[in-house]
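hey m, so remember when u said the tokens were messed up on ur end? i reran from scratch. heres the input so u can diff it against urs
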Amino acid sequence: MASVTIYDVAARAEVSIKTVSRVMNKEPNVRPAMRDRVLEAANALGYAPNLSARSLAGSRSFVIAVFADAALTIDHWRSERGSDYLQRIQLGATLECRGAGYHLLVELIDHDDPKVRQEVGALLAALKPDGVILTPPSCDNAVVLELLDKSGTPYVRLGPEKPEGLGARVHMDDVAAAREMTEHLADLGHARIGFIMGDKRYGASQARREGYLAAMKARGLKVDKAWIRQGDFTFESGHEAATALLALPVRPTAIFASSDEMALGALAAAAEAEISVPGEVSVAGFDDSPVSRLSRPQLSTIRQPLVEMSTLATKMLINGVARYSGAETQPPRDELLPFTLIHRASTAAVAEG
């Protein structure tokens, strides 16, 4: 049986092929009655537009790409615990793409590879995406941004460290979020608060450390250098950092980790040292990933709106509002989304004595 073509739909709806194309490509300025007639004909015939044909018919590829960090994604996969960061980014973007007739592609970028310029250049030439969502650290990578600008590919940066740049930005306030969590612990009576940093390559890591330090200073609390430990957002690094913190002669009464994965590592370290949570030490994370609700005790954490961020970024790319040449009088779009502090069972008032 021959496949249904755009010509069949046009004939059934008694409209031109151009009108069918405009409806299928969700272009504006099509009368609602005409749009309904075309869609009714397409549904009756079981017509599905071909992506390649749509691409050839115009300048769009109907592809949105997500650039994700290869190193951290692979590290999480090898840990067998994983992280749902990329899954949540994909969820928001995929749902928005599906509704608009676009396809989403995720590409892992190795930012430490000296051939990153050739790799990204080849990807852009092959995919010709209508837009790119840049997750950290791509959103701050000078080579990636340069190649996107040269190719004229619109992009949206999720949570970049640096606000300056030609691309639109969708983010949350990591400094304020970390400050609020630290103040939450201080409100519970904790004065000795340990902090586990995230991967140095990510702007959010430094921002969260800044928020922690600002809160400690504002509350007049001392910060011992030994209370700040380096991690890389993985369970293993959180476990190692928390083990060192809990072995200090005067250990912290609370530990704030820059990700839920590292906070889970801190819970494991406390269990191994037979230190009760939250009885002897409170533990807080950052992300509000599903594991934060599955752990025992459940984690107090900061919810960052990743699904909402990627949904908005995708919508901006599809609607063309992310394109920016630098010639405009208005700066590129900058969208700040709210975070939420979630208090669960892993944090409690400091123990007496």
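this time it looks ok to me. The longest strand covers residues 63-69. if urs says something different then somethings off w ur setup not the seq
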